[in-house]
């Protein structure tokens, strides 16, 4: 009863209630027009026209087909949902923001920052090709003089994060998809309030949709009363608007420009297993110190400039550059992915690692909702003799998404890709490793919304102890997983097969 009361009094419930009322009004008006003027095929015509428009777009075929099926079956509902969740065409305001977002690269990015390296001179040909692609689209640089510390669990990363926040002397930059009340956030908030009183500048940005059920409306105003310069990214409005699509899914904390903490952790207690909601929460995090922090700082300030009010704007990015260097045993390149361009940097980085693998490529992801390009890359690697393994959850956080994740097993298992489910609970870590040579850890899930509609981030580790640490994490995690065989998959209950079939239709919404 308490959970139901919380649901119906929450902002998310009322937001979507108003949206569905708008959809109902549109359906009613179309019905009245049909009955009065005899336009009996109006709904069908609407579905066909919108379907043709979707078909003409450059999105992945699977993404387009799911929307087309939904729209042809339920034209008014499907078109309305496409406007909210699938329509990526930018209006005048979005185009202006996109130009501003990319202009910041040339205005503030400092190419000659000490420690930035030419990938052609320091990386293997395959890794240099990946680095050039990522750098060309996101302006991220390759750095040395950067120490790294990898944590295979959020529980282990949390104390290090608190320790580094306590050391802040100049500024703290925080960007998270979810903030939720609890031990994690309470501990962080007390430090932030104390640091503000000591003269430390604190800039905090959280995604309004990601945190809609876990923080009060206009939470940023409460934080501003403490002296924290807080911004809700892309505030949710209860109306049909494609702007609702674009979410900030990044998770990063930057201290004094010299320390960056990222990985899969949001600021909520389930991420550090203080609250158990979906079994054991398997996540990861990492801490980098030194020159390589600059890429994360620039990413944050770039998105902050698009989102913050005038009085919080940052005019001089160089004031946030690293002031300390560090010893490293490998190279590092952190990058951001944006839905404001036509490139899926995270997905293409994943595919590049898969295509370049010679011996093995191992992957963990909470969601496995793949397009044909990703499936073909995985199958080709396996058919070429590469050991391809994927870890997914055993206990899902979203049952509908989990059903679609499992529906993607068939083409992979049939071609020899090995799939494991994390038995203790929910696998939230998003990481790749290949050939003891390269690892990628970040925020990007393997699904349509991540690749097409979210702001994401990731760090590529070229050699060094972190690559080995990620491999050790995989090996430890495999021991806690159940391998799914092709025979077991095809013999699963009919109910699961039907659920998987239906989930494919609504895949774009997941």
In short:
45% of the residues lie in helices and 19% in strands.
Short descriptors:
510 residues; alpha/beta; Endonuclease, Chain A; 3 domains; 9-stranded mixed sheet; 19% strand; globular
The overall pLDDT, averaged over residues, is: 85
| Contiguous uncertain segments of 5+ residues | none
Strand percentage lies at 15-25%
Number of strands: 20
Query: Helices and strands: which structural class?
Result: alpha/beta
Oligomer: single chain
Full CATH superfamily name of the largest domain: Endonuclease Chain A
Identify the overall geometry. Answer: globular
Total individual domains: 3
CATH class of the largest domain: Alpha Beta
Radius of gyration computed on alpha carbons: 23 Å
Reported by name, the CATH topology of the largest domain is Endonuclease, Chain A
Instruction: Tally the helices.
Output: 20
Commentary on this structure:
There is one protein chain. With 510 residues, the protein is an alpha/beta fold. It folds into three domains: 84 residues, no CATH class; 245 residues, Endonuclease Chain A (Endonuclease, Chain A, 2-Layer Sandwich), CATH 3.30.870; 165 residues, Endonuclease, Chain A (2-Layer Sandwich), CATH 3.30.870. The chain is built from 20 helices and 20 strands. Strands 7, 12, 13, 14, 15, 17, 18, 19 and 20 form a nine-stranded mixed sheet that branches. A hairpin with a 3-residue loop joins strand 17 and strand 18. Helix 3 packs antiparallel against helix 4. The longest helix has 27 residues. 48% of the residues are buried.
